[in-house]
């Protein structure tokens, strides 16, 4: 997954052609046959995103580009998303841009135009400040918590002890300890105080 450009399209010839194009321009690209396999690979790397751009075909089976985009947003994906669309899908692509996508290109497009847009998106991705990156990582870590872990986290930052949390949530103190350890690992902290400071610093 350590590629700068991810090409997600169910047309093998098309995505391989794009990969060749970017390779010829000095960019490392990975190809994915659909949104489902791409999302599976993305989830496996959380919360370490790095910098990348996604080229996403709007019409795919079994998971459409729009559905893939919504899943990426739910995961807190910071990567610019560039939709590749046919003529009949322009209105959907415009709506996606209004909903947070970087841009879209209508097929067929000129190679130079595509490369220019992707390079602009890569530049924007790398221009994020360290503060933004840290805040983004925190949001991603929070998104990775289960519902129960989020409940325990809310109790922890109130300063409650394990037994109190267990009483409030109707679980055993040992279960609280288990969730607490998972939370600390995902949030990359070693104490409830450090967790509270981190959440406060980035206003999560």
Order of H and E elements: EHEHEHEHEHHHHHH
- Indicate how many domains the architecture comprises: 2
Number of strands: 5
CATH topology of the largest domain: Rossmann fold
CA radius of gyration: 20 Å
Estimated structural class? alpha/beta
What profile does the largest beta sheet have?
5 strands, parallel
Q: Which percent bin holds the helix content? A: 55-70%
The mean pLDDT is 89
Q: Ends: how far apart? A: 27 Å
Write the CATH homologous superfamily of the largest domain. Response regulator
Question: Low-confidence segments, ≥5 residues, pLDDT <50?
Answer: none
Query: What gross morphology would you assign?
Result: elongated
Describe this structure in words.
The structure is a single chain. With 204 residues, this protein is an alpha/beta fold. It contains ten helices and five strands; from the N terminus they run E-H-E-H-E-H-E-H-E-H-H-H-H-H-H. Helix content is 57%, strand content 11%. It has two domains: 5-128, Response regulator (Rossmann fold, 3-Layer(aba) Sandwich), CATH 3.40.50.2300; 131-201, Arc Repressor Mutant, subunit A (Orthogonal Bundle), CATH 1.10.10.10. A five-stranded parallel sheet has the order 2-1-3-4-5, sandwiched between helices.
Quick structural summary:
This protein is α/β, with parallel strands linked by helices and about 200 residues long.
């Amino acid at each position: 997954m350590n590629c700068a450009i991810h090409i997600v399209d169910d047309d093998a010839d098309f995505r391989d052609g794009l990969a060749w194009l970017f390779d010829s321009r000095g960019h490392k690209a990975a190809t994915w046959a659909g949104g489902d396999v791409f999302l599976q690979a993305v989830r496996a790397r959380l919360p370490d995103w790095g910098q990348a751009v996604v080229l996403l075909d709007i019409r795919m089976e079994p998971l459409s580009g729009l559905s893939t985009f919504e899943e990426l947003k739910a995961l807190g994906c910071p990567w610019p998303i560039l939709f590749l669309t046919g003529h009949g899908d322009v209105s959907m692509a415009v709506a996606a841009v209004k909903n947070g996508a970087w841009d879209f290109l209508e097929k067929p497009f000129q190679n130079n135009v595509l490369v220019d847009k992707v390079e602009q998106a890569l530049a924007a991705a790398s221009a994020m400040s360290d503060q933004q990156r840290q805040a983004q990582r925190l949001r991603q870590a929070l998104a990775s918590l289960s519902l129960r872990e989020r409940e325990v986290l809310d109790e922890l930052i109130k300063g409650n002890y394990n037994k109190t949390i267990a009483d409030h949530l109707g679980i055993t103190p040992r279960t609280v300890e288990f969730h607490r350890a998972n939370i600390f690992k995902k949030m990359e902290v070693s104490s409830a105080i450090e967790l509270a400071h981190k959440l406060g610093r980035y206003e999560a």
